[in-house]
Queue: 3 jobs
Job 1
Amino acid sequence: MGFRRNKELTKGRIFILKRYIAIKVFLRQVNYILVFFIGLLLFSLFSLLLFRYNETSHTYTQEIPKLEVFHFTLNRFDMQHVDMFIKADKGMQYKDKEIYINFFGSRLNEDLSAETLEGQEVWHIGDVYNFLTGIYYTKSPNIKFFSEKGIYNTKNEVFQGKGRFFIEDTNMTTNGEDIFYDKTTDTITAKNITTKLIKF
């Protein structure tokens, strides 16, 4: 029994030794430079396939603009003076929209009152201006308006606010939520309205 076990161990050792010698002889005959370049080629192909797979598996949510302008100013002139002034830190034009960053606009009316409009991020799509991060509006001499978000349609002259807002003029300050303003009918509706009279 012990003899048979020793014989099997010897056979196993001989088998391992033969494999070791075969590998050693193969390695002596191999050109290491050729092996290096074949390995490098396989690694490059594997990396290329891996990166190509990652590119196709991600969907890009950000479009590339057709036109991008930084720190620009636009002036509109009538016969006598500048009646509209617009500036922004950045303007981007896409296929279906325009986006303005740190937008500021000012307009001089026929009654010589001035209006200003500000927004950190403004999207212009067709007749609609979407103030995503808030809108701040003033009209001289002393009307001020702010809404956390809002959409203004220039065609039907309707402003739909979302979130908190305030309106301030010479006589009162009004606060509330979700303001709706229709310029044609000159009506304002909102939620949770509170008004404070300003005392002189």
Job 2
Amino acid sequence: MRLLRSCSSLVFAVFVVATATLSNACFAQNAPAASYTPQVGQEGKDVIWVPTPQALVDRMLQIAGVTAKDYVVDLGSGDGRTVITAAKKLGARALGIEYNPDMVELSKRNAAKEGVSGRASFMKADIFETDFGDATVITMYLLPQLNLKLRPKIAGMKPGTRVVSHAFSMDDWQPDQIESVEGRTAYLWIVPAKVEGAWRWEISSSGPRSYELMLRQHFQMVEGLVKADNKTGQVRNIKLRGDQITFSVMEFAGVETVIRRDFAGRVSGNSIEGTMKSPNGTGEVKWTATRGAQ
């Protein structure tokens, strides 16, 4: 009986120790990796991790004109520094999309340390399968082929959305601005409105009253042909920045007389509304153009 009791006690003790060991192992497996330290050059889903220097992060957000009114989304947010900087220094609401779950948890802890958890958030997700269409600013440090893969989605975002990339461009979509900091390069694009097509409008001012403008577009680069009262003119200095467009129409009245009219407007779908400066400098005239069926 004593032997039986001793054996029973031994079995019970082993069971308790084994259960405690298993519980501790499970807890350790499920507990957040509070001591996780990422290594520069470590493999990721699409790229290796190399952090953007803080000085360049600051400059990228500066050239994008980030303010407290913006919603910044960082594609491949790594340790969260861009998101945290946007939230802490500029007061923006910001989201980091990162595939590595350890990086996501690290970023959340970093945001908490900086006191910006309310404005800086992070999600474990694939940037190619995530909807970030509400962003007003996109930041990224990817690779050229990944930029190109994202380009159709980015180009379809709301006109005026600012996009900043560390190091890599988007092929033949020319940047609106290029900046260098400590030997590193940042590229800025402003998503342009879609303006290609035939536009018509009339103005109540001296000179021609009806205009026809045919525009061709490659991202923010635009060229066109114009007619004023069915007479061929020239359209010059077309500039498209987000949903804002400006251009000059040169009208030929006689052999030596050229009348220049400067137009500025805001594009909204199939309409443009703005003002035209009178050629004699006497004031401005409102104009509204409508685009025909595509």
Job 3
Amino acid sequence: MNIYVTSAIAGLKEKLNGYVALLNYRYTNLCVKAELGALLPVTVIADKEYNLEDVAVIFTPTEYQFDIHPKLRDYLQPIIDGIFDVHPEFKLEIQQVEKSDDQRDKHLLYTMPEVDNDRHDLLENLTKVFYEECDADIDKELALHTGGLPELAGKMSVEDIDEIKDELFNIRDEYHDKTKELKQEKLIEIEEAYQRYLAANEGKNLAEGEIDFTKCMRLGQVEE
């Protein structure tokens, strides 16, 4: 395998890894559960500009909550402002720090919004849109990498060029499978949260794990 082929394969994988990482990042910020990646875009502006992890200690007491403890009292309001700028949908409760005699010692409990009917539809639609955009980018990248293959006609046999093309298409298919898997996982996550919302609002006293996940199981099947 010559240098061009090795470079083409490595270059394609590098680009496709970037597209898949972006899709995963976008899904993380369609906040259903409290995933730390959703806080990465938060900028805290105090005496200077900080990342959130520089000015706070972050806990996840439940899979749907962030518990954020400012390292200094002066960071409290800038943290609130920074998170609101990125995720205004988060539900905030300002709480007193336990075992502190100073009423100024506060921490921030953020709860992810319920997945009600409207939010369910919005999240599902965005999940599918982001998936389609990512897959389109993958196909465009493949076209760019296969576009240069005819230039090798005088240097390699037709069979070798076809073999290279097949390898590039196989890589493309592998990344399509990855994006499809990410999409299915997100749709299941959304549906599970929606079923919990319905159960809670219908007054069902279901124990943990007793929710009917029939639709979630269907979503988990690979789409053709």
